[in-house]
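can u do me a favor
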């Protein structure tokens, strides 16, 4: 069991750690992508600002040689409509990513102030007027070497038309070193922090799971002790957490209580059965021993009576054993009215009245035994008459057996259905009862999905009512 608990803790810890790890990886990936996107957007904005500054100067007629291109951090290229580099940053040594690899401007006339030599058509598809700046476009990422330092840049292109009608494109780049540094820093923090966080999660989950399973271990130890000692009076500890473990302990105690009650009933049953069997066996043995020594003294009627009593008691015990074993009754169609008349036949002072036919599904033999036991009990206590009534009550079939005796006290109306129970003033072994008839009758009724209860009869005696599920009319 300890291995089981360790396995449960290990599985819970592993599952929690995996869930947190997946969540952290997903969240970390989203953070890195968002951070990179924001930084790239910022770099693009910076590159666009630089390109617009240069384009503005060109739009107002500034000469190429007079352009301010000294920002070492942001390489700039100015390209005419023929793809010729006409201006560039002074320290630019190498560049990729703009589509123009040249870093040395070619001799070209500076922007002129008159528009006679210009061409108003833009080969790129964007029509601009003199002195107008077009919409910027992100070219992409590339590298540039400025004054011996090579870095990654994001490049933006801005088209511009000078007053003289020249179509130019300004390429400007913004360094991505900040983006790479921030992303690498965040990645490093995650690579260091995530394992530590997962270790904390695993440790906390292990401790919490161990604490949660501690009551279960207490239940296991107590159950092992109960099994070893066979003391069903002991109970497992119930934690005060009011959770699933507490409900498990409560259910376990209820199961132990039911088991203890069942074992106790079984012990009483065995003891009572042994006691009930002892008397007729001893009487029969005494009569046989006397007859063996003095044949003329043989009480044949007494021997037969004791034998019949033993036979009935054995039959009762066998039926109870079958009922306790959960034997399902047969599913035959039984007419209770006819069965009642059959059970009452030959009995003095017993009358049967009621519906002509009341059918139920069940075992004819067991239901006949119920009626016989009820009639035996009623005749034993009646002064003069017993009345059996068979009727239909809605979808239920009802058999009522009433006598005119002294009745059953309210305090004893459930106790009389227990096995081997006799009311002191009402029963004795001499009258033939072993205290099993009513117990058998109720057990059979319950097995057939019905009930057996006792009330006061109209004549003042006892009224036993058997109610069973009947067939639909």
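np, heres the sequence
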């Amino acid at each position: 069991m300890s291995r089981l608990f360790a396995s449960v803790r290990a599985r819970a810890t592993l599952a929690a750690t995996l869930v947190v790890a997946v969540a952290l990886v997903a969240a970390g990936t989203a953070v890195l992508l968002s951070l990179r996107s924001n930084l790239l957007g910022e770099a693009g904005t910076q590159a666009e600002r630089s390109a617009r500054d240069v384009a503005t100067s060109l739009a107002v007629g500034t000469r190429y040689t007079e352009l301010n291109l000294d920002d070492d951090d942001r390489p700039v290229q100015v390209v005419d409509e023929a793809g010729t580099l006409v201006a560039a940053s002074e320290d630019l040594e190498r560049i990729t990513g703009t589509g123009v690899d040249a870093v040395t401007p070619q001799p070209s006339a500076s922007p002129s102030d008159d528009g006679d030599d210009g061409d108003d058509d833009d080969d790129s598809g964007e029509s601009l007027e003199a002195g107008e700046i077009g919409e910027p476009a992100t070219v992409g990422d590339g590298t540039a070497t400025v004054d011996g330092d090579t870095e990654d840049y994001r490049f933006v292109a801005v088209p511009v038309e000078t007053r003289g009608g020249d179509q130019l494109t300004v390429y400007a780049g913004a360094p991505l070193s900040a983006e790479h540094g921030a992303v690498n820093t965040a990645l490093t923090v995650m690579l260091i922090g995530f394992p530590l966080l997962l270790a904390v999660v695993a440790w906390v989950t292990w401790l919490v799971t161990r604490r949660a399973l501690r009551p279960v271990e207490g239940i296991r130890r107590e159950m092992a002790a109960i099994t070893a000692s066979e003391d069903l009076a002991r109970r497992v500890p119930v934690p005060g957490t009011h959770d699933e473990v507490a409900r498990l302990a409560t259910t376990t105690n209820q199961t132990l209580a039911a088991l203890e009650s069942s074992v106790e009933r079984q012990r009483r049953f065995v003891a009572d059965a042994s006691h009930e069997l002892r008397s007729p066996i001893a009487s029969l043995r005494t009569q046989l021993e006397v007859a063996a020594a003095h044949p003329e003294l043989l009480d044949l009627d007494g021997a037969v009576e004791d034998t019949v009593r033993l036979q009935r008691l054995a039959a009762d015990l066998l039926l109870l054993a079958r009922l306790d074993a959960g034997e399902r009754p047969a599913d035959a169609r039984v007419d209770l009215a006819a069965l009642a008349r059959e059970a009452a036949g030959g009995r003095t002072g017993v009358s049967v009245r009621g519906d002509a036919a009341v059918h139920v599904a069940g075992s004819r033999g067991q239901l006949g035994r119920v009626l016989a036991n009820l009639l035996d009990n009623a005749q034993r206590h009646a002064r003069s008459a017993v009345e059996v009534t068979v009727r239909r009550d809605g979808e239920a079939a009802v058999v009522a057996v009433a006598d005119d005796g002294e009745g059953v006290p309210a305090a004893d109306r459930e106790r009389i259905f227990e096995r081997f129970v006799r009311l002191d003033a009402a029963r004795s072994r001499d009258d033939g009862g072993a205290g099993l008839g009513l117990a058998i009758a109720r057990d059979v009724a319950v097995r057939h999905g019905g009930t057996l209860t006792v009330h006061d009869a109209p004549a003042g005696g006892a009224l036993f009512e058997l109610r069973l599920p009947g067939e639909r009319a």
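Confidence is low (pLDDT under 50) at residues 113-125, 425-430. hope that helps!!
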